[in-house]
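Hey everyone, long-time lurker, first post.

I ran two proteins through the pipeline my lab uses and got sequence/structure pairs for each. Pasting them in order. The first:
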Amino acid sequence: MKIRIQLQLMNHQIDETAEGQDAAALLHFAKQETARRAPFLVRGIINGMSDMGFAGEAVKRSNQASGRHDPPPQSPQDFIDWAVNRGIVTILEP
């Protein structure tokens, strides 16, 4: 699976391509990249989360910022689908 990620995150414009075996691998990549770009204390919090905990927190914070009420993802594929629907991710290769 290959995706393109485009978003503004903590004063960083992100426009990257990522490849992984499946949605779980891509979710893990997203968590690692977010932690890598985060301030030190936030990095520790992100690194302490499970991948699905990170996905739920990402959706929650997006909802707070946008006024939406999207439900938390129930699987890595749900998270990828949510990101596609929000215009954050484009699937380049399934």
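...and the second, right after it:
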Amino acid sequence: MPTKHLHRLLAFHAIVTLAAGLVLIMAPAAIPGTVDIQLQPGQFLLCYFLAAAEFALAYLSFYSRKLTDPVMLRLVAVTMIIFHGVTLLLELYALGDGLSPRIMANIVARAVIIGLFFYYGMVKLPKSAVNKPEQGI
């Protein structure tokens, strides 16, 4: 079945994003600290907002594993591509603005994630899921 690999990718994505959300709450300075961003306790709210987004993506990824409708799976894949694509662009912008080059590891990881969601969520889905203007995706 062409959706088997996408379902596995969604499960893996759910685990990773859930873990990232938990770290952002339990140790909010840890992830920003990997690229030399020092946050004070009063600034942790930004990490908590990001954790909320991570939890929402984890939920969407986890429960999308059960979807069989190619149109719905394509919608989920496009959502992940947009989220990670915009984040990748913002990380590149921050890199150009002086952020530590260590962010490149995250940029590469996002590029791989985008590629995987594009391949399994767009290319490998059945042709019945081809974009139709009336569907809006």
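Reply from user beta_strand_b:
Welcome! Quick read of the second one: Residues 4-124 form one domain. The mean pLDDT is 92.
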